[in-house]
Give the backbone structure.
Amino acid sequence: MSAAKPQAAATDPFDVEIRQENDYLRRLDVTVDPAQVAATRRREAAKLRKKTRIKGFRKGKVPVRIVEERYGPVIDERTVDALVNRAFRDAVQRHDLSTIGEPVVSELDYQPGERLTFRIDVEVMPAIELARTGGFRVKRREVAVEDADIDEVIENIRKENAVLQPVDRAPQHGDVVSVAIREEAGGDGAEEKPYRFELGAGYAIPDVEEAILTLAPGEEGTFMVSYPEDFGAEALAGTTRSLLIRLDDVRAHELPELTDEFASEMGDFETLEAFREAVEQELRARGVRQADEELGEQLVDAVIEANAFEVPPSLTSRYLDRVIDAPEGADPEQVEEARKSVAPAVERQIKRDLVLERLIEDQDLDLSSEEFDERLAELGKARGKSLVEVRRELAKEKQLDPLRRRLAIDKAFRFLIDGSDVS
């Protein structure tokens, strides 16, 4: 525990002694100058007198003696509130306290017009000192790219460039079907609704998909369909309905052939092999970036462990409020259990953010305007856009600040990696 008591000027109305209870808790012991107590009480009494109406007296002309007799406790309460609030604001500004949550006032000792002392406990952002940021031993995950990984990427690209062709056969998973569905209970007058979706992609409930798989193009049938309990339409959730389903059209994806021509259409590649090599390089580069991020997170954990500090409970609570957005009427015990289950992860995230913020500040890792423009220009080149265009696009999406933060964190990770033994 440490204490700091600044030298107060003769006219200073507040004498504040600050004690550091722990990393985040500050105790303020406040003594208010008696002259300030008396002056504040006179002002509060005068303000109340101006508003007071008592039979036999004009508004604002009630004798001070009568106001004191009737409203003395109210004047005292207002005096104390005014002085406590003013003393707290003054201490926060004077000592540059980054407060979190609401202050707690206790040990209040008040004599009207003579003396006022009290204690304020308030949480602040922890002052983090990173005494050690390097010399850690960590292992980098090996990055390997298999032929199967390359094949998967190329297959996905083929699917993205596939052409839908009509087929005269029973549908299969992956086909795009056009169907018309109406509820039998409504009779012939029931509304028929058209749908078009890919089978197996989760667009339709399982019973409807299973029914469609039994039909041939142009056929229809009546099926009992059970809707899941969590179905979007509340009126249908958990019910079973009889539906008339007609299959109007089936289309299959016709994938482009894996040829040199296909490769040239995907970019500046003369052969399919050159395309495969480019995909491999991109997968490897992506794997290296992910491995570096994982390595950076390992090193952040090592820094947290080497430079232990406590997280303010109110800050954790604030994060939990965002993570656990409990609906109205939720079981309080279940909500509390959910908060407890994610609290460790939330606390780690807070510590991570605070450590990275301090590291970026201490090592001057934030991007200069010129450096940020260079990175934006690189991004624009990859997208085929100018610096102005990519900046305007990111500003519209409100992504400029998050990107700058992400790039600063990348520099912080690189700083940590360069300062440790990575194998």
Summary: The chain has three domains: 2-124, 163-254, 268-422. The chain has eleven helices and twelve strands. The first helix runs from residue 34 to 51. The CA atoms of residues 65 and 105 lie 31 Å apart.
